[in-house]
Write a structure and sequence with these properties.
Elements: E1 9-11, H1 21-34, E2 37-41, H2 47-61, H3 65-68, E3 81-84, E4 87-96, H4 101-111, H5 117-144, H6 151-156, E5 158-167, E6 176-182, E7 188-193, E8 199-202, E9 208-210, E10 218-222, H7 224-229, E11 239-243, E12 249-258, E13 263-264, E14 282-283, H8 284-293, H9 300-305
Parallel strand pairs: 1-2
Antiparallel strand pairs: 2-10, 3-4, 4-5, 5-12, 6-11, 7-10, 7-12, 8-9, 8-11, 13-14
Helix pairs in contact: 1-5, 2-5, 4-5
The structure holds 2-oxoglutaric acid and fe (ii) ion.
GO molecular function: metal ion binding; oxidoreductase activity
Family: Belongs to the iron/ascorbate-dependent oxidoreductase family.
Organism: Liquidambar formosana (Formosan gum)
């Protein structure tokens, strides 16, 4: 565990076109190159929505186990998961398109056949805000490379999935694994959480740094796809969750990922003599299959697409 100060914190409420926007984009790019992880404040999400989301996540996981188990999805790791041997404290749900009211509604109706408009509204609003944030961050990163022209194509060719997580209190007084170290696979991830910390990020120097998330802010993580796109300039930070203390942790991740058919390739602007091509083109589903099959590999991107 390390010093919280090492995770940069940015206010990204400033709008595109306003003074300081370009400097903000350059800063975001630099942070993504150095750390691959940062904290953001965004004043278009009221504090009350963060509080309501924490309550909504608690309400969801407070449902009886039999009710939660009704949520099944054919894709790996999307169904309701609990008692997973590698992460015994974790319970989670994976939901695609929770930013669309229909999907949020279907999820809510399955778990609360009598309806729960409050949960549905809060869950859907927070996911929509997090999707907005993922697009803003993607835009800032691309503009940071003066390559904003790629933004529309990437937005059109991206989709989002959401994961809602509860980490139970460790059985003894010691700290315990909540989630094993990994990199996120897609473009980028936005996380929100209740007041219980536990996320840790591995620095380039090899130290695990605790991410202390100020109330009402979000975490941004660079994923493997953006690392590949940038020809290895951006850092996809390895992260994990470590639980200690006597309070449950709740978090929600919005994963911005490429659509299945998008070919992820390094743009020619990012290849030169000093930086020859590092990754061959690939599609996201092929990369994911490799990741699921080769769980022992520390760096799936290198073994899969490295040239
Ligand atoms: O719970 C968290 O804060 C992190 C979750 C995470 O890393 C993930 O779901 O990929
Ligand atoms: Fe993650």
């Amino acid at each position: 565990m390390g010093e919280a100060a090492q995770i940069p914190f940015l206010d990204i409420s400033r709008e595109e076109g306003r003074e300081g926007w370009k400097a903000l984009c350059t800063k975001v790019r630099e942070i993504c190159e150095m750390h691959g992880c940062f904290l953001i404040k965004y004043d278009k999400v009221p504090k009350s929505l963060h509080e309501d989301m924490s309550m909504a996540m608690k309400t969801l996981f407070d449902l009886p186990e039999e009710t939660k188990k009704k949520y099944k999805d054919p894709r790996p790791f999307n169904s309701y998961i609990s008692n997973y041997p590698k992460a015994p404290l974790l319970e989670c749900f994976g939901i695609d398109d929770a930013t669309m009211l229909d999907s949020a509604q279907a999820f809510t109706n399955l778990l609360w056949p009598e309806g729960n408009p409050n949960f549905c509204g809060v869950f859907n609003s927070m996911n929509s805000k997090m999707l907005e944030l993922s697009f803003i961050n993607l835009k800032m990163i691309l503009e940071g490379f003066s390559m904003g022209k790629y933004y529309d194509t990437y937005v059109e060719n991206s989709q989002s999935s959401c994961r809602v997580m509860k980490y139970n209190v460790p059985p003894s007084n010691d700290s315990a694994t909540g989630l094993l170290g990994h990199t996120d696979k897609g473009f980028l991830t936005i996380l929100c959480q209740n007041e219980v910390h536990g996320l840790e990020v591995l620095s380039k120097e090899g130290n695990w740094i605790q991410v202390v998330v100020p109330e009402g802010s979000f975490v941004v993580l660079v994923g493997d796809v953006l690392k590949a796109w940038s020809n290895g300039r951006l850092h996809a930070a390895e992260h994990r969750v470590v639980m200690s203390g006597n309070k449950e942790r709740y978090s929600c991740g919005l994963f911005l990922v490429p659509k299945d058919e998008l070919k992820i390739e390094v743009p020619e602007e990012l290849v030169d003599k000093e930086r020859p091509l590092k990754y061959r083109p690939f599609t996201y589903p092929e990369f994911l299959s490799h990741c699921y099959a080769d769980v022992t590999s520390d760096d799936a991107l290198e073994t899969y697409a490295g040239v």
